[in-house]
Amino acid sequence: MKKIFILLLSICIISSCNSNNKKTTNKEPLPKDSLAQKYENEFLSIMYPQNWTTEWTDNDPDESIKSILDSLGVKGGTLELWSPDNRIGVKIVKSVSGWLDPNGNPKIWCEMSAVGKQNNDYFIGMSDITDSITLAGYPAAQITFSYYNGQDTLLQSQYAIVPQIGELYYANIIHMISDKEGYLLGRKMLQTLHLKVNAKK
Asked: Any residues with CB less than 8 A from the CB of 118 and at least 6 apart, and which?
């Protein structure tokens, strides 16, 4: 039964990490490296450029496991931050399945994510996993996925973060393959990421 739950919850993670919905804004742009705004909720905070859009969405797990998660008090969601031209995005996913954390190992969560990515029609490749790193002060692992939509190649640098047993976050930087500055800006944003590990799961 536990294996079934792990499978179903892994699908929830993969679905939330794959979505790339984008919104636009008509505000005048500021310098790209100006992290002038702060987003904060009960789970995390992060700095971002003033002219970017932000949207938090609560996770919507499959009905077959929703009642289980509700009974356990497990909460999750996705924060999306996008540049005005939608060429650079940072996405933070608080997993609903952290309570099934396998040994607290971020590398395992990167491996699980990689399995799902290969089912994406636009997927063309991925890097090796970089393990034993830290992000936001906690153990993390990193993997990069590449996609081709017929016009451009997109890169998604994904970090799996395990702040404590039972907690799991994915932090993603999404940018065009030729946009090194976009990646560096995303990294700069992630350096301001603060996870509230004592928040209710």
From this structure: none
Is there a domain that residue 32 lies in?
no
Banded pLDDT at 72 (limits 50, 70, 90): low
Render pLDDT for 10-19 as a digit per residue (tens, 0 to 9): 444 444 455 4
Place of tokens 């496991």: 65
Residue 27 is assigned to a structural domain of this protein: no
CATH of the domain at 7: 3.40.1000.10
Nearest to 68 by CA among 94, 92, 99, 109: 99
- 117 contacts 123 by C-beta, under 8 angstroms: yes
pLDDT tens readout for residues 119-136? 888 999 999 999 999 999
- Taking alpha carbons only, the member of 177, 178, 139 closest to residue 157 is 177
User: Could you give the percent of the chain with pLDDT greater than 70?
Assistant: 71
For the chain, what is the domain count? 1
CA 162 to chain centre: 13
Angle, CA of 110, 57 and 155, to the nearest 5°: 40
pTM of the entire structure? Answer: 0.79
